[in-house]
Design goal:
- This protein is mainly alpha-helical.
- The chain has a domain at about 10-75.
- About 80% of the residues lie in helices and about 0% in strands.
- It has 4 helices and no strands.
- It has helices at about 5-45, 50-65, 70-75, 90-120.
- α1 (about 5-45) packs antiparallel against α2 (about 50-65).
């Protein structure tokens, strides 16, 4: 008997078992979401903040959104699976203005400190 055949068979059954457990967990989670959404919708209907039809639509939308994969709920604006690129612009054109602003602020701080010392005496 081939020793690798037993390993492959065990790996297959392990994968099948994991898939079954994951499916059951997903079904339980979906049921919990539906129950909680229904309770929330009933509470909103009782308060008069939502009509029955709006509550039904609300629950259906929540369940539908919970069934979507994460990648579908946050679409990439480029429409591609590639990562987004981020560009960092250099602020060289404003650097001389920023330096003069900083110098002016330092002068103001020094003047205020001198004024404070003068008033404390």
């Amino acid at each position: 008997m081939n020793p690798f055949g037993g390993i492959v068979q065990k790996a297959f059954y392990l994968g099948l078992g994991l898939a079954t457990v994951a499916g059951e967990k997903a079904g339980e989670t979906l049921g919990e979401i539906r129950t909680q959404a229904g309770k929330l919708a009933d509470e909103l209907v009782e308060r008069g903040e939502m009509t029955t039809e709006e509550a039904r639509k609300f629950v259906d939308d929540l369940v539908r959104n919970s069934q979507k994969p994460i990648s579908e709920s946050t679409p990439n604006p480029n429409g591609k699976d590639a990562p987004r690129t981020i560009s960092i612009d250099d602020e060289d054109d404003n650097s001389s203005q920023n330096v003069s602003d900083v110098d002016a602020l330092k002068d103001q701080v020094q003047a205020l400190q001198d004024e404070l010392k003068r008033l404390q005496k």
